[in-house]
Amino acid sequence: MSDATNDLQQRAAALDSADPLAKHRELFALDDVETVYLDGNSLGALPRHVPERIADVITREWGELRIRSWDESGWWTAPERIGERIAPLIGAGAGQVVVGDSTSVNVFKAVVGAARLAPESRDEILVDATTFPTDGYIAESAARMTGRRAVPVAPGDLPAALGPRTAAVLVNHVDYRTGRLHDLPGLTAAAHEAGALAVWDLCHSAGALPVGLDAHGVDFAVGCTYKYLNGGPGSPAYLYVAERHQAAFDSPLPGWNSHTDPFGMTPGYTPADGAVRGRVGTPDILSMLALEAALDVWEGVSVEDVREKSLALTDFFLECVDAYVPRGRVTSVTPAGHAERGSQVSLRCEDGAETGDVMRELIARGVVGDFRRPDVLRFGFTPLYVGFADAERAARVLGEVLVGS
Amino acid sequence: MSDATNDLQQRAAALDSADPLAKHRELFALDDVETVYLDGNSLGALPRHVPERIADVITREWGELRIRSWDESGWWTAPERIGERIAPLIGAGAGQVVVGDSTSVNVFKAVVGAARLAPESRDEILVDATTFPTDGYIAESAARMTGRRAVPVAPGDLPAALGPRTAAVLVNHVDYRTGRLHDLPGLTAAAHEAGALAVWDLCHSAGALPVGLDAHGVDFAVGCTYKYLNGGPGSPAYLYVAERHQAAFDSPLPGWNSHTDPFGMTPGYTPADGAVRGRVGTPDILSMLALEAALDVWEGVSVEDVREKSLALTDFFLECVDAYVPRGRVTSVTPAGHAERGSQVSLRCEDGAETGDVMRELIARGVVGDFRRPDVLRFGFTPLYVGFADAERAARVLGEVLVGS
């Protein structure tokens, strides 16, 4: 073992033993010590207590109580109840977040909702051109269906592109590909100065860093729950509608769950007040209650502490990559500055290395990240269960793979 | 015991022992013999093998394989794979059904999709005025967002209301309140004769009776899976797009899952061919795979046999109600004619009886149905697990409750 390796491993051990969040790893089913799981930015690990909870939901609540569970087991109110659990993680006060549907469907609600709050003369919806593709596709549809046009703009160019024609902007808080963190307070303020509304996609930031929706005056936000919130595969997404917009929020998907008296079953639609207006149809209870249980791991955790560890982890990983990977083989496309970094590190493979092959070899050696075509290796750092020794090992194995040893 | 009771109980026993579907009850968790479960038209009972399957999905597929399960456990292709399992139950050939999202969201896709296939001069969407309310609310939104207007029409008046301005009609196959079965072949043909498209909601018919989507030339259909298909609370709905419309189907929710190359992650949207075009965002895997497992109970079952038993059950229940309930206390609002009856019986309480109180007392005595304001008691008959003795007992207890004994 080289001196550099020895030094980095000793530092990792020291950092792990000083880490106040280290004990949270025990809450997750991560018993395969031969694996370093760095894909929590795609699918969070399983919280250990979720299987028992869902067994009870299925066997007793569905199997025995059956229809009674809609009331007695609290199924009916799950979307708003779980919304309240997520709210503090994204800096939202009570009554503004509701869970249900996919992120794409919520982007549709949010962008149409925002567009309808703008005068018709504001006929453009600016869309982060680097966003996860579904946001762009859906924003295009929302624009078309509200008589607007969607205009893709690189996030850095957004302030200059805002103007009297802008109805709303849709921005991803953290770029899924590069891990770049966008300036939510600044872009929201710029949108407001231009008289436009700001819609944020929090898929890659919620649960990894403070968002501060209320503090920064965000208008609408959406996010998924299966990444840093560990809700399980395809767990339902959420919609945030700032309280000041709720009374005028005009959902394009006014399903019966958003009616003020859903069991009145009246032919006329009268929307409910509050976050519930963002509901649509019958909630997918199994997926939803797995998410609810998964959120228990956040008890007593501050998002600020999570952020501090996240930055320390990605700093340390980048340092280890620098030490272990021969110069010129990879380049980080994740910003070095903390203010611009999410909770993942993305490395571009240079000199023609096939990213897919590199990642497959990494996975075969127990380091699980993923890749995005054509040339980006992604490593997600979930502070609740990833440690510094994991970061060191991932970088070391990457170095071994790239030199072909 | 009166002679009438004795006779009906003997007939029930004979009918049950001659019932070729009776053995299917064993497939469900219905061990509380003190309960007659007649609310399968709202939430189907739990198939006995589902908990074990979902325990494996959570513990092994999510907990151990994690991100690899999107490929290795077949998560990614679940929406279309499960669509193929539902297809034969609703008379659809391969490649036309996809599972995902709620019924409300699928109504939106279907009605917008149908409207966009019509010339702009066809500016009306006729909506079954007796449909489950969410269909009306969503159709109104779909109409508004495609430059049309939604026109509520009683199903019986639909043929006369169809005309050169009709883009599409949205009809519920079975009325959720009365249990009336509408004439799918006739109304579909009438719509086509008028140059309009037919969109059917199968929530209360799929799994209870033959639908024949292909045979009758239906254009679009949607349905839920948690009633007669026993998929679990809020299990995902499905969308049927007839093959001849798929190439032109222009979804209002073009999420990345419907892209021809979703992992290409290109900024431009190019829709996939086939049923997959109806997908939107990441599927809710836990709810979806519970549904997939639940569909196993259909192996070797013909929907024609289910229909035959369903009609025999509701006939027998009506006969028992006639024998046990004092004349004038309830009136069936479910049509007597087989061609107009779904798989539920709805009884209107007369002489001011409070329907909610009656149902609460029934449930307290082990007969689980539900009620719909202001005055309808609903009893759903799921032929896979409800027997003739159940029907006799339900009617007998109803008689006891209504005479206050």
Automatic annotation (TrEMBL), chains A, B:
Modified residues (N6-(pyridoxal phosphate)lysine): K227
Cofactor(s) this protein cannot do without: pyridoxal 5'-phosphate
Pathway: Cofactor biosynthesis; NAD(+) biosynthesis; quinolinate from L-kynurenine: step 2/3; Amino-acid degradation; L-kynurenine degradation; L-alanine and anthranilate from L-kynurenine: step 1/1
Subunit structure of this chain's protein: Homodimer.
Xref: PANTHER family: KYNURENINASE (PTHR14084)
Function noted in UniProt: Catalyzes the cleavage of L-kynurenine (L-Kyn) and L-3-hydroxykynurenine (L-3OHKyn) into anthranilic acid (AA) and 3-hydroxyanthranilic acid (3-OHAA), respectively.
Protein name as it appears in the record: Kynureninase
Protein species of origin: Streptomyces flavidovirens
